[in-house]
Amino acid sequence: EAEAKTLFEDVQKRFGDLPHPIHGTLGKFADAHIAAIEKPIGTDQPAPEITGTTLDGKVMKLSDYRGKVLLIDFWADSFGPSRDHFAESKKRLETLKAKPFAMLGVNADGDRKAALQASQKAGLTWPSWFDGGTGGPIATRWDVDQWPSVVLIDAKGVIRHLWAGWPEEKELDKAIADLLAKAEK
Residue 113 sits in which domain range? Predict the structure, then answer.
């Protein structure tokens, strides 16, 4: 890790202003990797802020959802397994609509317009950040390298569960129910 951090710091210094197709500049690319090294994501830790643009071009912040149990789905239409849970997720949102619960997505497709069309075609009712690809700044910061991946955050903004891949529905529903019970006390 120390060697990787040194290499990313070198990229910042020598090439920081050069363009990067997803992160904007190589400096921002290096920043995301350094943050992931210095402050790795883990359970029982406060969720780091996510600020980004949704598939439909609106600015969205993770902290706007504080007070709710959050399910974050790292997905891409280009990866079939990402689509397998959409029907259950829509049912879950409908069932929990009166509860302090929200679902957010982080999309890793490379084309915003195509990702928006895929989201609309699938009838997704939750907003998704556009991350610009699997190596986007959000996925990099959250150290996501499998699609889908799922993060469950409690109402206080603390990460409670991390899954590489989509968890079993019963396991996910129980984890959500447990966090909702705590949030509603």
Answer: 41-183
- Per-residue b or e along 20-41, where b marks 16 or more CB atoms closer than 10 Å to that residue's CB: bebbeebbbbbbbbbbbeeeeb
φ and ψ at residue 32, rounded to 5 degrees: -65, -40
In this structure, the answer to whether residues 2 and 64 fall within a common structural domain is no
If asked whether residues 23 and 89 sit together in one domain, one would say no
pLDDT, tens only, 141-166: 998 988 999 999 999 999 999 999 99
- Give the tens place of pLDDT for each residue, 65-92: 999 999 999 999 988 888 899 999 999 9
Helix (H) or strand (E) holding 106: strand 101-107
pTM over 0.90: no
* Concatenated DSSP letters of 37-98: HHS---TTSBPPP-EEEBTTS-EEEGGGGTTSEEEEEEE-TTSHHHHTTHHHHHHHHHHTTT
Structurally, how many domains does the chain consist of?
Answer: 2
